Amino acid sequence: MNLLGLASLAIEVAGKTVCRELTLSIHPGDRVAILGCNGVGKTTLLHTLAGLRPWSTGKILVDNIPLSTMKRRRMARHMGILFQSSEAAFPATVLETVLTGRHPHIPFWGRESERDYRISMEALAAVGMDRMAERLTTTLSGGELRRVEIAALMAQAPRIMLLDEPVNHLDPPYQLSILERLVTQSNRHRGAMLAIFHDINLAARFCNRFLFLFGEGEWTFGDRQVLTPMLLERLFHCPITRIPHGDGHFWVLG
Which stretches are transmembrane (predicted)? Predict the structure, then answer.
């Protein structure tokens, strides 16, 4: 079963080719790390998959339905995006902010149900923010606000999660625990994740498939077999060494 399918996708923006002839299938249980240097178009790709910007040629299918024909509300039940960064633009409590993730599931002119409140509080508890439910988001630190944004996505409960640098602003312990929570939720819903990473080791730890964007439209997609020093050095333009550690290994730059 394909949750997300790309067929000969080409994306261009401001005269730059992000990808050319990108063809791949995302299935339940897939956790895809998107890796590449700054400026190659990782965020542009994610926004395109979320239906937020047009693409040049090719097809994007969500549950075998063309993305171009899906209504926004239905799309939000299938797919959710965590943006790279955002600001608390207006005063709202933490709980009110997380409840916005439930809006795709609430009938027009309807109100949040007890179930919506319960799901939202469970999401806050999962990221360690339930005790701050009544705090205004304008009073939060960057890391706290990031956890609220992640909780809102978890409350939305889409089968496809698009994550733009999900560990931005998070302390190392929260980076690990929240990525573990996201993986657990994705597995529970038989879903998939596509996440932009800058940390090769986090990507290798939490993902099982990898999309490399080299620039000029060139890309590589595969499982752990693509995690080689040669490909990673070509991707990041610097020496990279694989160091054995326990039953696995980690990557060191330089």
Answer: none
